[in-house]
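Morning, I've got a small favour to ask if you have a moment. The fold is given in discrete form, as structure tokens running alongside the sequence. I'd be grateful if you could look everything over and explain what you see. No rush at all, and the record is pasted right below.
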Amino acid sequence: MTLLDQFQLLLKAANWPDWAVYLTPAVVGILLIIVFILTVVIVFIWWERRLLGRFQIRTGPNRCGPEGIFQPIATAIKILLKEDIVPEKADKLLHFIAPVIVFVPILLIFAVIPISEGAILVDLNVGIIFVIAISSISVIGIFMASWASNNKYSLIAGMRAIAQMVSYELPVVLSLVGVALVAGSFSMIKIVESQTIPYILLQPLGFMIFFLGCLAEMNRCPFDLLEADSEIVAGYHIEYSGMKFAMFYLGEYGIALAYAGVIATLFLGGWQGPLLPPLIWFLIKVFMIFSVIIWMRATLPRLRVDQLMSFAWKFLLPMAVINMLIIAIEVLVGTMQWLMIILNFGFAALLILLWSRLFTLGGGRVEA
């Protein structure tokens, strides 16, 4: 039973009206999710700036508050005070709605992510499918933003972003099939409870595919083509400013938090861990994943658009199909978990070696 279910029972025991019994927990849950996201995103922004500073042998923000902790708040205030400029020939309605459609699905993802035992808004028996379906809605907001701006550069960037997200959606979905097969359920809570051994050890190849696919869908390095330093414009939101741009900016960090939470839940055992409270373990795993994302941003160069698309279709997609078949055979045979660890690490190393050779020979790498 979730915490909100218990809250609902307390309201019934207190003889609240039926409409209040069902509406109040939902409103409280939504407010808690918004507060949680805003708080962690502020820390994410500060942590990324400070960690990037360490990687680049500099200090990072250190003036606004102790160790620069108030710098993200100052940045948010600055953005909110900027003028909202809308192009004269833009579609005003779509231009206004697009940031909302990009941001709201991120809130819905957190409804099925358990941050602690019982601390989940709703325990769906199709939790994984819900996450995949909801995360895809942001594509519509991106298309609306690029089209409504009445800017050819914005439209081209939007088309590139949509092609990128749709291409990487396929290997991401296929990599999750292995998780569902081993856990025997699509429920996020049951997947966490089934991880006596974290699935990152049982399915290293599936984890790698899912992680890289999430990086592409988050527009994070090395897949952050929309923020290329050599380009004139910054993507589909070039015509946005003020609060609307802040929602896109918040959405980028919000989706990073959401995918980090999903990865921690599906592959790292979620809230499970010794000694520390469950919520602390969940946050530690989320920040570990986000730190790796920052590490990759500070280390790797970004791919070109042709390399990005080739990587999705020629490398990740075939690997995801093979990984799914291997996991299905192991589950059907009833392979012991310790043997699955040895076999799957061996399969992952062999497939990556062979596919990297095929990928290079097949034209996946193009000299600069």
Summary: Residues 18-55 form the longest helix (38 residues). The chain has two domains: 1-81, 82-361.
